[in-house]
Task: inverse folding
């Protein structure tokens, strides 16, 4: 189980590159139960969305899941705008998301 | 209304708030987007509108850098922020690339596209802004927020 706390805009460049590396490492180590806390992410751009949904598909193929905790208002709006909010389970905090994997 | 919104209502003239040329790389995009957000905050533009404009600019600049400049930081993207007397905001992003035909873009929100890792940028811009026009050969986007 991994809880990933992101801080700052999740957008093209170092933020998305670093998050991709974290997800790849988790996937390669067989850790497919992932909680991503988006409470301190004021912006998610299309590259951040693409990364989230691509890894959601990969991880689900391995029987795991990526669950979102405390997404900011604007993160929720953006995911909804492009129709992918419904793909994710959303929790009000990390603990609830972690417990949901039990 | 803040003094900076001082366009001419008779002619619909636009006031230039920012005009920047930036290298085609991701960090320059982030700086430009943050500068625009700060400018809009100083103009007392509401948070929701600031967010929508900032994300649209992020997407337009990302498209310009990736597709218009091929991620070549020696190339430059021009970004202009203007407003009119009614407080309407227009953003113009121009790149040196060959352009594209926006009408050929498919719907990024349906079927297998939902899990695609790309192809949402222009769709997002159209959702976030009130008017979107591609000029010339498709290498310039002009986006309005009312």
Result:
């Amino acid at each position: 189980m991994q809880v990933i706390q992101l801080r700052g805009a999740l957008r093209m460049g170092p933020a998305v590159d670093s998050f991709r590396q974290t997800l790849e490492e988790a996937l390669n180590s067989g850790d497919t139960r992932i909680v991503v806390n988006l409470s301190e992410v004021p912006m998610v751009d299309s590259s951040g969305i693409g990364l989230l949904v691509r890894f959601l598909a990969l991880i689900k193929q391995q029987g795991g899941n990526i669950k979102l905790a405390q997404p900011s208002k604007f993160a929720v709006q953006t995911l909804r705008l492009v129709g992918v909010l419904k793909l994710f389970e959303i929790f009000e905090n990390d603990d609830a998301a972690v417990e949901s994997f039990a | 209304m803040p003094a900076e919104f001082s366009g001419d209502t008779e002619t619909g003239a636009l006031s230039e708030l920012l005009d920047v040329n930036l290298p085609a790389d991701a960090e320059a995009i982030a700086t430009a987007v943050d500068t625009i957000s700060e400018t809009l905050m100083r103009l007392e533009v509401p948070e929701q509108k600031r967010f929508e404009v900032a994300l649209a600019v992020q997407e337009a600049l990302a498209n310009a850098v990736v597709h218009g400049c091929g991620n070549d930081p020696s190339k430059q993207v021009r970004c202009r922020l203007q407003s009119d007397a009614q407080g309407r905001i227009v953003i113009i992003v121009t790149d040196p690339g060959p352009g594209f035909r926006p009408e050929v873009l498919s719907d990024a929100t349906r079927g297998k596209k939902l899990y695609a890792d790309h192809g949402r940028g222009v769709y997002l811009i159209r959702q976030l802004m009130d008017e979107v026009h591609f000029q010339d050969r498709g290498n310039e986007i002009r986006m309005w927020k009312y």
